Amino acid sequence: MVLGNYKTALSARSTDADILKCSQDGGVVTQLFAYALEEGIIDGAIVAGPGDEPFKPEPVVAMSKEELLAARGTRYTISPNMKLIKEATRSYGLDKVGIVGTPCQMQALRKAQLYPMGMRSVPDKIALAIGIFCMENFPYQGLETIVEDHCNVKMESAVKMDIGKGKFTVYTERGAVSQIPLKETHKYEQPGCHVCLDYVANLSDISTGSVGSPDGWSTVFVRTKKGDDIWSKAITAGCFETKDIASVKPGLDLVTKLATGKIDKNKKTLEERATFGVGKGLRNPYI
Amino acid sequence: MGLLSRLKEIFTGSQQASEKKPEAVADIKRPVTASKPAKKPEDVKVEQKQDGKNKEDKPVVNKITVGHVHMSGCTGCLVSLADNYAGLFKILDDYADLVYCLTLADVRHIPEMDVALVEGSVCLQDECSVREIKETREKAKVVVALGGCAAYGNITRFCRGGQWNQPQQESFVPIGDLIDVDLYLPSCPPGAEAIRNVCVMAYLLLQGNDDQKALAAAYLKPLMDLAKRGTEACGCDLMVDVINQGLCMGCGTCAASCPVRAITIEYGRPNINRDMCIKCGACYAQCPRSFFNFDVMNQFEGITEAIDGAMGKGGQ
Fold this sequence. Notes:
Number of strands of chain A: 11
Shape of chain A: globular
Number of helices of chain A: 8
Radius of gyration of chain A: 19 Å
Largest sheet of chain B: 5 strands, parallel
Shape of chain B: globular
Helix content of chain A: 25-40%
Number of strands of chain B: 9
Strand order of the largest sheet of chain A: 3-2-4-5-9-10-1-11
Largest sheet of chain A: 8 strands, mixed
Oligomer: heterodimer
Strand content of chain B: 5-15%
Structural class of chain A: alpha/beta
């Protein structure tokens, strides 16, 4: 169960050169939303658009491919995408909403659908929820510290950041590459991530991330009926090149290994929290 | 009840008896009648509905009984229940009889009922309200605090009396300060779909088979825990019980759920404008780190389908 329920797992890459030019890996999220938007499967998608500071995302409701393209690529800090979920259905009046988010945001989304106390009009209007793999996240100031102090790169001159193979890597516009061991970044992680028991967005319709697939490709889990339906249509429409997950290099074994690692570590954190004080503990949200 | 049937005719047209039988519906099965002893007269009364043509093709004898008890609230929660539109009729057709509701049912005194949805806080200076909330507790098997006022006082917390024509009425308390409450449904008002889901789950809890009962119990438990948590709520709960506890991950849900837009997300954490906060409890209740029951959430697809099915929205 560390990988959640899924119907299909595969390796995929967008067939759209525009999307791939600046995508983090296989451009799966951008491509899927672009296709869904074009086909009327969604009226708009809540994505992490550009914010007022470099690499500080701001949630936006993207209603065109241009807006989607402006939002592609990973920013290793929080984009509170859920904050637009009611806005999208009520202020924007969208009937079919797409949303991308981290595993915790997918959890928030499903809670919003099952217990929509403060989420009027939301539950029945989620057409496509795409989850992204997530080990942990940094507050913006944490990311800034990592990039500027540890990697010696100005936030303004960074063009891409990446986490993989135990390294945190920053690429600059002039072609310089700065790399530090991921271990050095751990202390800047946000504490709320340390109780998270989901690595591969188990509750999304489709979840995706780089882990498990070769460079430039993304691993994709198709999880729900809705996700399956949209995915197969997108494949038929020629949106993606795919590879059998069993045939690609690190494959699902690595995904399983990382997922298990995260869940075990965070379960331990939850246990420690339970007896954190003297005869008193910290709150456990999972009851 | 007569009024409701008429309303229903107006909205759906009298011939459109297109309600699907609940049997046709995903997971929710009508339990066998024999399994449930008819304890109360209300259980049977339903058969004598007047709208001849529209009559359900199967007499509905095992509906649960629901009442709406109106304390000091604005009727917004009742409107939210009604905002299920056709879903409200479906609920009243198949799952619940509205046995008490000052706005929609011509019943003067609080009857025995399975579920009492209480809207509004209790005015301590209003004898009738105090008597009625106690009576509600005695007559209802399950008391639900419907909405922020009943659960936490909401804006009535800010009352200080001095208003024409009852200037002495100044103390308004959440119902939990006077009676035991079984379940909270916070927010101002609680989303129509949330009330719908709780109605369906209450039905399953009281009338379903063992599996359905287990699911409904698991679904309702966090809302019952909220009722045990206390009668005070504020945007501060996000600080005290989420951020201070090292649990916030900045998803943005609280900002979306706030009915008065008092919450913005600044650098990944909620920023609460406490002057604007009306103390409805929505943000904390909606936060994925206030409660998150995996046993229910992991079944989100099935539950959503089942609820859609129960509401006659199955299919595509």
